[in-house]
Amino acid sequence: MSSKQGKASLGVLPEQKEDYSQYEESELRWDRIIPAGIIILLMLIFGIYWLLAAPDAATNTAKKPAFETTSTKLETTTDVKKIQVVESHKAAVIVEERVAPIIPKQTKQVEQVEQVEQVEQVKSKQKVPVKQASTTQPSPVKILDTHIKRAQLSSNLEKGMPVDALSAQVIMSEAGIIKVHLYTEMTDLHGQYLFHEWYRNGKKQARVKIPVNHKHQRSSSSKFINQQMLGDWHVKVIDEQDRLYIQADFKVSSP
User: Fold this and answer.
1) pTM score, two decimals?
2) Which of 102, 126, 150 is the last residue of a domain?
């Protein structure tokens, strides 16, 4: 048999004149449907679980800072209380340390005030103010010798100098006692003795001896006068030969 007889010649296939698809039978592939259904079911379960779990996680996340904040507040409050206790303890210690030295100082100050008041009371008794009837009246003191440079009646002396000049009319104080000073300044009488003599209504009440030891000297004498010693007063300054240097006349009357 030749090679030409072994080959088949193929031409164009004839066109299909009828539709056979309507006669095809459908076959369900359960080997694919069941796994796909299981997968879909698992996906639904996972989605539902995720939806339910998400709010719980958000709630827990929101609540957690509040708990931490409360805890922090409690710890802060506890720390503040501890600090307050420590600070109050320190304050107590500081107060005790400061108060201790203050008490003696106050006591000393009170004692000093009491001493000053006592001194002032003594001074007030010694320095009884003397009232004058008028300051326009002429001086009650007369200088009768050139060796006397100054002579003055005063209610008090400070640092050896008169604080005021009394007039011829002197008013008794409300305390019922006054002190009158006769202040003098002299020169070129050193080596002599001068005498201050105080008279009330013509009767001698006191005699004060004053030695003159300096060329220029200041000297004074004084007399307490109470309610029973009202009247006319006369003071004179003389030497051992009864030479008259100063005389002063004044009247003490009740207020």
Assistant:
1) 0.49
2) 126
